[in-house]
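Progress against Task 2.4 (sequence-to-structure conversion) is shown through the following example record, which the project officer requested during the mid-term review.
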Amino acid sequence: RWGTLLALVGYTLRLQRRSALIWGLALGLYSAAIVATFPTFGAAEQMDQLVQMYPEGMREAFNIEDMGTPEGFLDSQVFSLAPLALAFFPILACAGAIAGAEERGTLDVLLGNPLPRWQLVAGTFLATAISLLAIVAVVGLLTYGTAVLFDVDLPLLTTAEAVLNLWPVCLFFGGLALLCSALFHRRSLAVALPASALFAAYLADVLGEVSDDLEDLRPASVFYYYGTAIRDGIDWSNFAGLTLAALLLALLAAFAFSRRDIYT
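Structure tokens generated for the chain above:
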């Protein structure tokens, strides 16, 4: 029973390794480029003067209050926006696991093996979680390596917390995509719904930062619990909460998939 699950996880990891490497290198090189440009912006006092020219609401919404430090600069240029990009890796991977395989006509062949349906869901979720962890590790290595190369004062622990904090919020949207993939027969729908939820959650958090009238929207957004780990460290209670929420979505996906018919 568990051997088939491990085999499925290994098989899915092999399928995802190329795309995971591409995602890791793309985001890592972008982050490295931002680190490399930090020394060219002059003294911290000059950066603070520039930041004060922005409206207060914009400074709070886009985390540009402390751009005179490497942590503040990376937070505003990389880690405040990185989840919007990186979340698409688990969304695409999990959306294609069931609905995508069903559209390709390979799902019935796969389930013709002695493989319980819940293991297909669990194997996809576990493999995607591991691949996502590998991506953030590559981003962290390239970011810290560039900081050392350009003599930027960016501690290793701070870098590790910043990239690790990306993992649960992106995995949450992967779990949502997996649930949509289990509920619907179209991969496009299993991608569109989580992607819409992703942008809606980000917009709700930003609007809540800018407007006092909309501040009550923020706790309903996943990004409210994402925080700013590169400046404040990881909030482990929020980290655990997002991870448990992603697991709950995966469990709901397994339940939904066990009860629906497959189109052939």
